[in-house]
Amino acid sequence: MSQPLPAESLTGKVALVTGSSRGIGADTIRYFAEAGADVVINFRNKAPRAEKLAAEVRELGRRALVVGADLTDPASVADMFAAVKAEFGGLDVLVLNASGGMEANMGEDYALRLNRDAQVNVLQTALPLLREGGRIVFVTSHQAHFIRTTPTMPEYEPVALSKRAGEDALRELIPSIEAQGIQFVVVSGDMIEGTITATLLERANPGAISQRRESAGRLYNVSEFAAEVAQAAVDPVPADNTRLIGDVSGFVAE
Fold first, then answer.
1. Can you state the angle between helices 196-204 and 208-216, rounded to 10 degrees?
2. Which of 169, 168, 170, 165 is nearest to 109 (CA)?
3. C-alpha distance from residue 180 to each of 51, 64, 133, 174 (Å)
4. Exposed, middle or buried by CB within 10 Å (0-12, 13-18, 19+), for 90?
5. Residue pair 41/88 in contact by the 8 Å Cβ criterion
6. Key word Protease present in the record (predicted)?
7. Closest of 219, 138, 147 to residue 185, by C-alpha
C-alpha cells in the first residue's frame, strides 16, 4: 500500500492510536509516522509487538512512545495520558481504534464497557491534551453503524450494539469537542480481511467472511482500511461527521 498522506503533512504533530500494536492500528501508526508525526503506540497485552513497531517508527526519524493501558480501567487511561503529556506536552490526533467483545472469559458486560464506556472516558481524558485544530477519529464497522436498521450475524450482534452505543455517546460530545476547536469524525468500514474480529467471526460462523465478501464484491484488507483511517485524520470532515468506506448497498440508512 502506498503512503496515503502527503509527505511531511503531519510534521510537528503527535498522534495516538489506541490498540496499535497490530492490525489496523499498527498500520495507521506507520502511515502517520511516514507523514512526519511523532506517535503514541497503545497496547493492552502485546508489548513486544508494540516495541517492534516503535523501532520501525524511530528508524524513520520520528519519536515513538509505547504505553500499555487497559482502556476499561480509568486509572490506567489516566496514567497513559500523563505519560503522553510528560513526553510530548500535548496531542494533535486521537484515533479510537481499539475495540472488542468477542473474546472469551471477559465478562458479560465487557463489550459495552470497552466499546462505549471506555471510548467516552479515553476521549474525555485526552481532551485537555488535544491542541486546537486537532482531530478525533472513531473507528467502527458498517455492521455496528447500521445495526439499528440492518441486522448482522448473531455472533457479532453484541459487539455491533455496543459499538453503536459508543458511537452515539461520542456523537453527543461533538458540540463540546468542537467548542474547543477540535474536530470529530467516524470512519465506518465493512468487515476487514485479516483482522482478529474477522478471524473470530469465521471461527464462530464458518463461511461468514466469504459470504460477506461475495455480497460486497470485495472487502478491504488491513493496510487499505488503515489508509482510510489515516486520511480521516487530515481530510476535511464531512457535514455528518461520517466517512463510509466500501460498499454500503446492503445496509439501510436511518
1. 110
2. 165
3. 33, 26, 9, 10
4. middle
5. no
6. no
7. 138
Contact, 246 vs 220, CB < 8 A? yes
Given a contact cutoff of 8 angstroms between Cβ atoms, the answer to whether 67 and 80 are in contact is: yes
pLDDT tens-digit map of 25-42? 999 999 999 999 999 999
What pLDDT, on the 0 to 100 scale, is given for residue 102? 66
Sign for the pseudo-dihedral over CA of 113, 157, 26, 51: positive
pLDDT in tens, 152-166: 888 888 899 999 999
CA angle (169, 65, 223) in 5-degree steps: 65
Residue 114, number of CB atoms within 10 A of its CB: 25
Alpha carbon distance 25, 82 (integer Å): 21
DSSP conformational letter for 128: G
Q: Which amino acid is at 180?
A: Q
Alpha helices by DSSP H, the chain: 23-34, 47-59, 74-88, 110-112, 118-126, 142-145, 157-171, 174-179, 196-204, 208-216, 222-232
Model pLDDT for residues 99-138, shown as the tens digit of each residue: 887 666 667 788 899 999 999 999 999 999 999 999 999 9
Q: Which of the two residues, 139 and 211, has the higher pLDDT score? A: 139
